[in-house]
Amino acid sequence: MAPGRNIKWNTRAKDENGWDIFISQNEAVSYITEEFCAAWEVFCNTENLGCLPFSGGWAEQPVWITQALSVLKVEKSLADEEEREMKQKEAEDSRKHGRRK
């Protein structure tokens, strides 16, 4: 990134008028709280290890963990779907223009 350049990220959230909400890269740091870091760590460990943080099933997990995992899993699914659609569009564009990847 060039010095002094501030990239805007689309949060995929909408304001009251239905417009996309963007935050600057500099602002993003203020949104990353200790709670978010804890939730992200639990999510990553759950995904990587394939098991819940505490023994038992979903009913035995603390509420904050089930809520965090639910939200982050939905966001991951949305990001994965977005990536699949982008790759599919790129493949279609390549076929239309006679290029191969």
What's the gist of this structure?
By secondary structure, the chain is mostly helical. 56% of the residues lie in helices and 12% in strands.
List the helices and strands and how they pair.
Blueprint: E1 8-14, E2 20-24, H1 25-31, H2 34-49, H3 63-96
Antiparallel strand pairs: 1-2
Which short descriptors sum up this protein?
101 residues, mainly alpha, two-stranded antiparallel sheet, 56% helix
General description of the model:
The protein is mainly alpha-helical and 101 residues long. The chain folds into 2 domains: 31 residues, no CATH class; 69 residues. Helices cover 56% and strands 12% of the residues. It is built from 3 helices and 2 strands, in the order ββααα. The chain has a two-stranded antiparallel sheet. β1 and β2 form a beta hairpin. α2 crosses α3. The longest helix is centred in the C-terminal third of the chain and has 34 residues. It starts with 7 loop residues before the first strand and ends in a 5-residue tail after the last helix. The mean pLDDT is 87.
